[in-house]
Specification:
Length: 314
C-alpha cells in the first residue's frame, strides 16, 4: 500500500502529471523486471541497476517524447543540396548542429524537467525518487583526453578502458522503456514504439512508491528487416550473435521471434562518431533512424536512402 492510500490513484496521478508537462509516452515497470529476463537474460552492469541508486526501489517510470520527422529527415536532405547562405565547408557541421539541437537537446532538457516535476510530486507524498540526465555524462579528468578515458587502454593505474568505448549515462532509459511496456528493441539497437518507431527519446524516474505496472509488449514491433544496419554507412551496427563481434555480453543465439526487451544488436558509437575521418562523404548522423519503416515511412529522404528502401519494398 502506498502512503497516499492506493497504488492505482498514485499511478494515475503520476501519468497525468507527466502528460500535462509534455511527456507523450509514459509507462511503469516493477523493479523485478530489471532482473535477468528472456530472451537474452541481460543483467544490468554493476552500478546501473535501479536499486544501486535507491535500495528500496519498487518501480521505474519511463517517459518519452517524439522527435519530429522533419527534424530527423530535413538536415540529411539539405546537406546534399547547394545552399545560398551556408558556406560549403560548414554545411555538414551546420546540419549536424541543427539535428543535435532540436533532435536531442530539446528533448533531453524537457524530459529532465518532467522527471524533476514527477520526483517532486512523489516526494510531496512521502516517497523517494531518483532522476537522471537524459544522455551520457562527460566528466573532465585533468591531463586526460576523452579518448584516453573511454576509448583505449588507460595509461595510468590498473583500470582498463570502458567496455562501451564511449561515455554513457548512469541508467539505461532504453531498457527502462522496454520494461515499462512502451516498446521493444530493434535491430538498430534503439527502442521502437508503435507510435513513432525509433524516433523518440526517453528518461526515467526510480521510486520506492508502489505503482501499477504496465504490460510488456507481446507482439513484435521491429520488422526484422535490417534496413537500419544497411543504412549505416560505417557498418556500426551488428547483431549480438555475430561470431565475428567480440561483445562484452554476447549470447550464443537470438530467437528472432521473441520480443526484445534486451537489445539484439550492438553499436560502436566511437566508429559512428569518427565516420568523417574515414568517409568524408558520410551523411548527417541518423540514417539508421531515417531508414526504419516502423511508425510510417518518410518521403523526405536523401536519394541514397530512398533507393535502399525502394529496393527492400520491391
Amino acid at each position: 500500500m502506498n502512503k497516499d492510500g492506493g497504488s492505482g490513484e498514485l499511478t494515475a496521478s503520476v501519468k497525468d502529471l507527466a502528460m500535462r508537462h509534455g511527456a507523450v509516452l509514459v509507462g511503469v515497470a516493477p523493479v523485478e523486471r530489471f532482473d535477468p529476463l528472456p530472451p537474452l537474460h541481460d543483467a544490468a552492469p554493476g552500478g546501473h541497476h535501479p536499486r544501486d541508486f535507491l535500495p528500496e526501489a519498487r518501480a521505474i517510470i519511463s517517459i518519452g517524447q517524439p522527435v519530429m520527422n522533419p527534424v530527423i529527415d530535413a538536415p540529411a536532405v539539405l546537406a546534399t543540396r547547394e545552399l545560398e547562405m551556408i558556406p560549403e565547408h560548414v554545411r555538414y557541421p551546420y546540419f549536424e548542429a541543427l539535428y543535435g539541437e532540436v533532435g536531442h537537446l530539446v528533448q533531453d532538457y524537457m524530459l529532465e524537467f518532467i522527471a524533476q516535476i514527477i520526483g517532486q510530486h512523489l516526494m510531496s507524498l512521502g516517497h523517494e525518487a531518483m532522476i537522471f540526465p537524459t544522455t551520457g555524462l562527460h566528466p573532465h579528468v585533468e591531463g586526460m583526453t576523452d579518448a584516453e578515458i573511454w576509448e583505449g587502454p588507460a595509461s595510468r593505474g590498473a583500470n582498463k578502458f570502458s567496455p562501451f568505448r564511449y561515455t554513457f549515462g548512469p541508467f539505461s532509459h532504453r531498457h527502462a522503456a522496454t520494461r515499462a511496456g512502451l516498446g521493444e528493441f530493434g535491430y538498430g539497437n534503439l527502442v521502437l514504439t508503435r507510435q513513432f518507431g525509433p524516433r523518440q527519446r526517453f528518461n526515467s524516474i526510480v521510486t520506492d512508491a508502489e505503482l501499477d505496472p504496465d504490460p510488456l509488449v507481446t507482439e513484435p514491433i521491429c520488422r526484422r528487416c535490417g534496413l537500419c544496419q544497411r543504412a549505416c554507412i560505417m557498418e556500426c551496427i551488428t547483431m549480438r550473435d555475430d561470431a565475428s563481434v567480440r561483445d562484452y555480453r554476447s549470447v550464443a543465439t537470438i530467437d528472432r521471434h521473441a520480443i526484445f526487451i534486451d537489445t539484439p544488436a550492438k553499436t560502436d558509437p566511437t566508429l559512428c562518431r569518427r565516420r568523417r575521418e574515414d568517409r568524408p562523404d558520410s551523411p548527417v548522423r541518423g540514417d539508421c533512424v531515417r531508414a526504419c519503416p516502423v511508425g510510417g515511412r518518410s518521403e523526405h529522404l536523401p536519394e541514397r536512402l530512398r533507393r535502399l528502401i525502394d529496393d527492400w519494398e520491391s
